[in-house]
Design goal:
Layout (H helix, E strand, L loop, with lengths): L2 E5 L5 E5 L19 E2 L13 H32 L18
Antiparallel strand pairs: 1-2, 1-3
Length: 101
């Protein structure tokens, strides 16, 4: 059973340990004033571990970026070498060892 906190018009706070289906109190336990209202607090959320984003969506997005980045860098370097106006020296032929030894 949960504990509920109530506030009266005179700003007295009091708690009730009651079931969910039990009716709210009609009067304040401290001064007897009516009506009382239920006090609600925000729930604290603590994310622990690797997290929702990194386990469900982050890995797929990172893998796609890595693959795309590798393809982009290879295509840009090949287009730079073929489209450049710089002249390169021709490749030298390799010397072969004599076959008579």
């Amino acid at each position: 059973m949960p504990i509920y906190e109530y506030r009266c018009p005179n700003d007295h706070l009091f708690e009730r340990f009651q079931s969910i289906t039990a009716p709210a109190p009609e009067r304040c336990d401290v001064c007897g004033a009516a009506p009382v209202e239920l006090v609600l607090y925000p729930v604290a959320i603590h994310y622990k571990g690797s997290g929702f984003y990194s386990t469900d969506y982050g890995k797929k997005g990172k893998a796609a970026k890595k693959d795309g980045a590798a393809g982009d860098s290879g295509s840009s370097s090949s287009s730079d070498s073929s489209g450049s106006s710089e002249k390169t020296a021709p490749a030298k032929p390799e010397k072969k060892a004599p076959a008579g030894d």
